[in-house]
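I am still learning, so would you mind making up any protein sequence you like and the C-alpha cells describing how it folds?
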Amino acid sequence: MIDELAVDLRGEVFTPTFLVNEMMGKLPPDLFTDDTKTFLDNSCGDGQFLVSILNKRMVNRISHLDALQTIYGIEIDSNNVKKCKARLSLGKKSKKIWAILDRNIICADTLDKYHKGWESVGYMWDETRKPIPVDARGNKFFGR
C-alpha cells in the first residue's frame, strides 16, 4: 500500500522486486563473491536492494554475518529503517547480527552531515566527522 503522505513529503517510492532483480543482474557477478566489497544504499527504504545484495552474497557462500558487515544503508524514515533491519536480520535474534545492523543501517539524512542520525557513527561512518551538538539556539557544545 502506498503511503500518500510519504510520497508527498519525501517523494518516497519503493522499487519493485522485478526491477531490483533486473538491476542486480546487470552488475558484475564478482561483486557478490568478493567478501571485501562493500555496498551502500543512501536511500534504502525498507531494504529492497540491500536484501537482494544479502541474498546474492549468501548464495555465493558468504555467511550472513560476514555479508551484513559489508552492507550499509541510510534512510530518513525510522519506520523504514526498522523494516530494513528486520528484513536483513532474516528473523534472527543474534546480538552480533543486531549490533551490525544497528551500526550499518541508520536513520539519517544522507544530504545533511549535521543531521542527528550521524551522531553515533559520524557522517558516512567517519568517526572524525561526527556532528557537533547544538542547543535550541544553535550554540555549539564543544565539550562532550
User: Anything to note?
Assistant: The chain has a mean pLDDT of 86. The helical segments are 4-10, 17-25, 48-59, 64-68, 78-89, 95-104. The first strand starts at residue 39 and ends at 41. The chain has six helices and three strands.
